[in-house]
Structures are given as structure tokens and as C-alpha cells.
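Before surveying the methods themselves, let us examine one representative protein, pairing a chain with its fold in C-alpha cell form.
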Amino acid sequence: MREITTPGNASRNSGLHWGLNFGSLLFGGILLLLIFRGTGQSQVMSMEVITYIFEGLSVFTILSNVLFFLLPDFSERSAASKASFRKTIGRIFMLLRDRRMLLLSAIFMYNGFVLSFYISIYPSCLSFSKSLVGAGNEIIAYFALVTSFGQIAGNFSVSQLMRLTLKTSRNFKKNYYFTIEQ
């Protein structure tokens, strides 16, 4: 993402990245719901249903890898900044000593733990809960849909707030400098 991001479009690209990330969760939830409804096996999954799920998600994984390789190449910009492997690893460890990077790494670790819990552990607990046994495995599909809708709505609202904040700060600076000059 760094190769195609400039300071002017960093927040937009970041929002698109997270939106697509949770859009895939939305797609996975819809796929699970269609498979469970189509086969009628939402209580107990047979090997056939597991095969459908695996094949469907594998096809889209392969398609996403093909799309990744078809992204535009900005090699002239990256060729100018090519460094040796040893130098690059050294820079990474130097960067890890920066306190801002330590703060970011703690935030990313927290985000990883939360996502792994809410995307894998929590839905599994829901599917084995005795009070929700009637819903069967469809509860996992519904949970994926609700989680992805919430994440996409949250990302959309944060990007809109970011745009509004930037616009307000530009107007404030413009008006502030205008009143000082008078």
C-alpha cells in the first residue's frame, strides 16, 4: 500500500484497505449463509458442505492473489530507494526503537488480538452455546454479517469525520490568518 500512497491520499487508501478487509468478511458471511440455506445443513456440517466452503474461499483467495499481481508497478520510485537486505533489516530494528513505533506496535497487537477473538473464537463459542443450538451454524454467518456491517460503518464514519476535520482545520487556518493580517 505504501508504494501507491501519497500524503494526499493516505487516509483514503487506508479507509479503502480496511473497508475491503471487512468487505471480505461480509462476503464470507453471505457465502456461509447461502451454503447453509442451500444445503439445509446448518445444524451439522457434512464433508460436502465443508468442501463447498473450502472451495469457495479458495477460489476467492486465488482471485485476490491474481489481482494483487496485476496492481500497477511503481518500480521507478522503489528502484531509487533499493537497499540491501542487511541494511533493510537494520533499518527495521532501528525503527522499532522509536517510541512512536512502539506505541503503534502495541495498538496493532491489540487490534490483532481483538480481531482474532471476534472473528474466530467468539463465533465458535456462539455455535457451541446450548441456548443458541437451534440457530445452528447459521449463527456464525449472521455474526460475520453483523461484524462486517459494523466495521464498514465504523470505517465509513471515521473517514467522513477525518474529511470533516481536515476541512474544518483548513477553514480555521484560513480564517485565522485572515484575521491576523487585518
